[in-house]
């Protein structure tokens, strides 16, 4: 089932506040083989929060995660993430195209801290593979 | 230094399991051959974000630390198929400076697997 084109421009509710802990950062750094340095957060870490926003979005449009392939991901930082930050992602659907039975969904997420200040802006392209593929 | 020190990273199925847990991305295409092939993929594939995280590590090391990386991203142009064996798959990362000013340097990064590009248009901006 193609994704509804009227979603373009829609902003989804912010994700539940996500406390960044040293333990979680260490787990993430280890998973990407990065050195574990106290107080330092890998630059791809906000995907944890951005992914939560994407899951909320997929649930809302009733799309199956296993049909999703990540097409593109970009991050632009205002400041580095630190343990102790409490992050929230707010996802907006920017573009939607149908190509060969697949939906190409362009989204952006604003990652903000407990004070509502922007920490990072992310852009994701998600490819929703159609049932025929 | 106008070029990244070329780096190689090995990715095994165990790495995918660890990354799934750490990132919260439990898409079964990253652990189930059956589901991956049912949606037309050649096999179990690495999380694009894991490949991007590895490539970004090369940039971080070159730049002098993760906090210096202010912008980065890429297209996931070709899936990285991770075989069900102990050897896994090898990802090669190279890169060069494309522009610089007083406070930042821009890099273009090439990420390949068996000589074929897996990330497209990977760029990064780092603080000097």
TrEMBL record, chain A:
Pfam families: FAS1_DH_region (PF13452). InterPro entries: FAS1-like_DH_region, HadA-like, HotDog_dom_sf. CDD domains: R_hydratase_like. Signal peptide: none annotated. Residues 6-121 form the FAS1-like dehydratase domain. It comes from the Bacteria. This is MaoC family dehydratase N-terminal domain-containing protein. It comes from Nocardioides dubius.
From TrEMBL, chain B:
InterPro entries: Fatty_acid_synthase, HotDog_dom_sf, MaoC-like_dom. It comes from the Bacteria. Residues 6-97 form the MaoC-like domain. Pfam families: MaoC_dehydratas (PF01575). Belongs to the enoyl-CoA hydratase/isomerase family. It comes from Nocardioides dubius. PANTHER family: (3R)-HYDROXYACYL-ACP DEHYDRATASE SUBUNIT HADB (PTHR43841:SF3), 3-HYDROXYACYL-THIOESTER DEHYDRATASE HTDX-RELATED (PTHR43841). Signal peptide: none annotated. This is MaoC family dehydratase.
């Amino acid at each position: 089932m193609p994704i509804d084109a009227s979603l373009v421009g829609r902003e989804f509710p912010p994700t539940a506040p996500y406390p960044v802990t040293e333990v979680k950062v260490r787990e993430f750094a280890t998973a990407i083989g990065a050195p574990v340095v106290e107080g330092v957060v890998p630059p791809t870490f906000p995907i944890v929060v951005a992914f939560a926003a994407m899951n909320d979005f997929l649930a809302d449009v009733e799309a199956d995660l296993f049909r999703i392939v990540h097409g593109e991901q970009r991050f632009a930082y205002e400041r580095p993430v630190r343990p102790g930050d409490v992050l929230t992602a707010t996802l907006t659907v920017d573009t939607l195209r149908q190509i060969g039975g697949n939906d190409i969904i362009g989204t952006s997420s604003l990652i903000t801290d407990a004070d509502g200040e922007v920490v990072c802006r992310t852009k994701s392209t998600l490819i929703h593979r159609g049932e025929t593929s | 230094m106008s070029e990244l020190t070329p780096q190689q990273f090995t990715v095994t199925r165990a790495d995918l399991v660890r990354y799934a847990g750490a990132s919260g991305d439990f898409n079964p295409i990253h652990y189930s051959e059956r589901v991956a092939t049912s949606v037309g993929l050649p096999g179990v594939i690495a999380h694009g974000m894991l490949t991007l995280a590895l490539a970004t590590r090369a940039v971080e090391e070159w730049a002098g630390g993760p906090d210096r990386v202010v912008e980065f991203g890429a297209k996931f142009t070709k899936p990285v198929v991770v075989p069900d064996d102990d050897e896994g798959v090898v990802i090669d990362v190279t890169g060069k400076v494309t522009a610089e000013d007083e406070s930042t340097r821009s890099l273009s990064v090439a990420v390949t697997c068996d000589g074929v590009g897996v990330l497209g248009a990977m760029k990064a901006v780092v603080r000097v």
